[in-house]
């Protein structure tokens, strides 16, 4: 398991970016589909982002105050209205800080210890949530009753004994595990779209919402990837399901570090320092809700909310997604496309991809070869990762990318078995 910057045989060092393109230290140009793991929905160096940075420096005279500000309230209200009308919001500095806080809140609220998550779902680099994200299948138990496997050497046995793993999109098995562990569970945390692209099936999601409500287990949607990208209102909007807490990251800061927890007022009330003795969840951070991230985030969401903006992103993404699929079909490469809104991914298999085990059964080697070939041909994404588009991606980018995908597949053909 490698963090965001490394991949085999070695990562590419980038030097600069503009709009939808990046240039490496050797001067090679690429169409960028990493978009900093989806964080840049307006593209690199968008004008509204630059203007907003200048405006903050001009009007605040600083980047951070360490006090509440009016813009924090304004942006928090926007986020609340999109993700949890009537709820509350707390800003953090990253997605990881948001998921960590969400779990802490759920524990304080329920007085329970155990955490349930889905196999293959990522919630940030924190020991409490670093289990069964990327387990070796041979060690991970039965597909319908996976066992918790540490993803990092610091995750100790104590944490694992409080960790429950659920199989995504397998309702009977999930129901069984949740019903057995219900009274000990502080929360169920999930990526409503695995890897940001594989959807929880509607019936599965509806069942999960109902059962967690019946068992009084807070349901946490980790919308760090899906928020503002599959829909403006993320998976919450896509499913019309309101989780007890949603965690936001990436796009929320418009390219600056930021995260947020948005959710039920009575759960977030544990953050109120005026609360009853013994019920308060202590949360603090020097840069939380700093005016720079707040303003840039707000300007970004305003730009994305303009009439037609999200539809344009979706249309361009669909064109590329459809074109990739057509290029593969033309060459008789079995594949599955997945993804909504402004991102998608492709899996090389003839069978439906519904969860982690299905991904592991797809041809990951071919995918890696293709991605390395794409990089050589001027299309950048981290090998294996999803394609993220932005409002800076043009029809020409899409056309050029499809040409390059065709060439890359043809270059690969002699060495790959298709
Ligand atoms: C679903 C999900 N949750 C949490 C995180 C952690 O966010 P960050 O990298 O901002 O800490 C990520 C990061 O990719 C993510 O995809």
Bound molecules: pyridoxal-5'-phosphate
Query: Structural class, judged by helices and strands?
Result: alpha/beta
Rg from Cα: 21 Å
| Helix share, percent | 25-40%
Kindly report the oligomeric state of this protein.
single chain
Strand content: 15-25%
**Average pLDDT, to the nearest integer?**
96
Offer a few descriptive terms.
418 residues; 4-stranded mixed beta sheet; 38% helix; binds pyridoxal-5'-phosphate
Give a written overview of the molecule.
The protein is of the alpha/beta class and 418 residues long. Helices cover 38% and strands 16% of the residues. The protein contains 14 helices and 18 strands. The protein has helices spanning 35-38, 47-60, 70-83, 95-110, 157-161, 171-181, 202-214, 234-239, 265-268, 291-305, 309-330, 356-360, 364-376, 395-412; strands spanning 14-18, 21-24, 29-32, 88-92, 114-118, 141-142, 145-146, 163-166, 185-190, 193-194, 198-199, 219-222, 245-248, 259-263, 336-338, 343-347, 379-380, 387-388. Strands 4-14-13-12-9-5-8 form a 7-stranded mixed sheet, with helices on both faces. Strands 1-2-3-17 form a 4-stranded mixed sheet. A 3-stranded antiparallel sheet has the order 15-16-18. A hairpin with a 2-residue loop joins strand 1 and strand 2. The radius of gyration is 21 Å and the shape is globular. The relative contact order is 0.16. Bound molecules: pyridoxal-5'-phosphate. Pyridoxal-5'-phosphate (PLP) is lined by residues 37, 94-96, 99, 122-124, 191, 222, 224-225, 249, 259. Pyridoxal-5'-phosphate (PLP) binds at residues 37, 94-96, 99, 122-124, 191, 222, 224-225, 249, 259.
């Amino acid at each position: 398991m490698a963090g965001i910057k490394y991949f085999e045989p070695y990562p590419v060092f980038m030097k600069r970016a503009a709009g939808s393109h990046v240039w490496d230290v050797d001067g090679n140009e690429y169409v960028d589909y990493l978009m900093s793991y989806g964080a840049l929905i307006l593209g690199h160096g968008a004008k509204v982002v630059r203007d907003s940075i200048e405006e903050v420096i001009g009007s605040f005279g600083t980047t951070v105050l360490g006090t509440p500000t009016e813009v924090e309230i304004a942006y928090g209200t926007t986020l609340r209205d999109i993700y949890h009308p009537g709820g509350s919001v707390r800003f953090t500095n990253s997605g990881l800080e948001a998921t960590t806080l969400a779990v802490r809140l759920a524990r304080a609220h329920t007085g329970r210890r155990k955490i349930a998550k889905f196999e293959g779902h990522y919630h940030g680099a924190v020991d409490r949530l670093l289990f069964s994200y990327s387990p070796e299948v041979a060690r991970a138990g039965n597909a319908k009753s996976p066992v918790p496997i540490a993803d990092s050497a610091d995750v100790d046995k104590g944490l694992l004994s409080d960790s429950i793993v659920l199989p995504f999109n397998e309702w009977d098995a999930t129901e069984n595990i949740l019903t057995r562990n219900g009274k000990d569970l502080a929360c169920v945390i999930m990526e409503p779209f695995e890897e940001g692209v594989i959807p929880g099936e509607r019936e599965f999601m509806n069942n999960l919402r109902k059962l967690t409500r019946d068992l009084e287990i807070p349901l946490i949607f980790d919308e760090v990837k899906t928020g503002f990208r599959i829909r403006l209102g993320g998976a919450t909007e896509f499913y019309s399901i309101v989780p007890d807490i949603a965690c936001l990251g990436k796009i929320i800061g418009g390219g600056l570090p930021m995260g947020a927890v948005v959710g039920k007022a009575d759960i977030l009330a544990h953050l109120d320092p005026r609360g009853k003795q013994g019920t308060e969840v202590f949360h603090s951070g020097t840069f939380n809700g700093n005016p720079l991230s707040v303003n840039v985030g707000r300007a970004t969401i305003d730009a994305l909310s303009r009439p037609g903006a999200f539809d344009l992103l979706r249309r361009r993404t669909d064109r590329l997604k459809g074109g990739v699929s057509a290029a593969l079909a033309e060459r008789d490469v079995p594949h599955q496309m997945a993804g909504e809104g402004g991102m998608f991914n492709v899996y090389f298999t003839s069978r439906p991809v519904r969860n982690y085990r299905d991904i592991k059964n797809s041809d990951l080697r071919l995918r890696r070869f293709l991605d390395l070939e794409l990089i050589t041909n001027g299309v950048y994404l981290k090998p294996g990762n999803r394609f993220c588009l932005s409002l800076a991606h043009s029809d020409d980018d899409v056309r050029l990318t499809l040409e390059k995908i065709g060439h890359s597949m043809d270059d690969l053909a002699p060495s790959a078995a298709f």
